[in-house]
């Protein structure tokens, strides 16, 4: 166990949100871990993005685009910052972030707390090499939520390696309603119109992030709307509002559940999207990844790359190195010569 991992465990004496802020400050001070060169078997391409490895950092960790550089150096193949909204907002009242240690899970009801587009854009404008995505959302009090997404896309055009349209957080009232067919068609239609009016040199992939709690028929409708509007992929999935067999005293807290209990649900949903998409869009698997075997299962279910966040609460910053090592071993064990060769193997 590294000193960084020991420090991560020591932070559990603090409130979860205070521990996270302390971690961000430590990373800004240059105290983050480094990483060895990536195993070549983990290199891949997703929607035209060339990734040194397929293991990415999910949004929520670096909400304000403050530490994407240190997290790339820690070994992530790509980092997604946000969710960012046009205007700064405080989010929901504290406490709003809970460790469920017995379940190796987290419940959050943060509510898109962030500093807004301008500081976010200024930091992205100074970024160096590496794949850094921007996850954009809508302000809670916005009269035109779709307009907020258009504002985010327009302001960050040319600054991010890719965009993720987050309509699946359970912590902004009514946001998930944008996943319904009519609302999604309007949202993606307006975003496509805005994209096509912006300079061609800033064009990068756009992904839609969905919930794992979808109803029958919604998967197919979402895929067809994504394809029709020229988006490049879907991220499956965000947190869940279900509470599957939890042991922690915090199990009844409101908010989105992430971590180990989400693994099976999100992977099953990923498989449904893989079947519906039939290779027309790229899929990124997220939700409950805590090991190389978990990441491998996402690839076999149809993901071209994966993202994690909550597992670092328990595995420390060295977790990404261990996941990459074990994922490479899984690929070689089963005779795959690359990440791409394993995608959808199930």
List the helices and strands and how they pair.
Blueprint (H helix, E strand, L loop, with lengths): L2 H8 L5 H13 L15 E3 L2 E3 L3 E3 L10 H6 L4 E7 L12 E4 L4 E4 L8 H9 L6 E5 L8 H11 L6 E5 L14 H17 L8 E5 L7 H11 L4 E4 L19 E4 L3 H15 L4 E5 L5 H10 L3 E4 L3 H4 L3 H15 L5 H4 L4
Parallel strand pairs: 3-4, 3-13, 4-7, 7-8, 8-9, 9-10, 10-12, 12-13
Antiparallel strand pairs: 1-2, 5-6, 6-11
Helix pairs in contact: 5-6, 6-7, 7-8, 8-9, 9-11
Structural features:
346 residues; alpha/beta; TIM Barrel; three-stranded antiparallel sheet; 12 helices; 13 strands; globular
Report the count of strand segments: 13
- The overall pLDDT, averaged over residues, is 96
Report the biggest beta sheet as strand number plus sense, adding barrel if it closes.
Answer: 8 strands, parallel, barrel
Class from helix and strand fractions: alpha/beta
Walk me through this protein's architecture.
- By secondary structure, the chain is an alpha/beta fold.
- It has a single domain (3-342), classed as Alpha-Beta Barrel (TIM Barrel), CATH 3.20.20.70.
- It is built from 12 helices and 13 strands.
- Strands 3-4-7-8-9-10-12-13 form an 8-stranded parallel β-barrel, surrounded by 6 helices. A 3-stranded antiparallel β-sheet has the order 5-6-11, with no helix packed on it.
- Strand 3 (55-57), helix 3 (68-73) and strand 4 form a beta-alpha-beta unit.
- Helix 6 (181-197) runs parallel beside helix 7 and helix 7 (218-228) packs across helix 8.
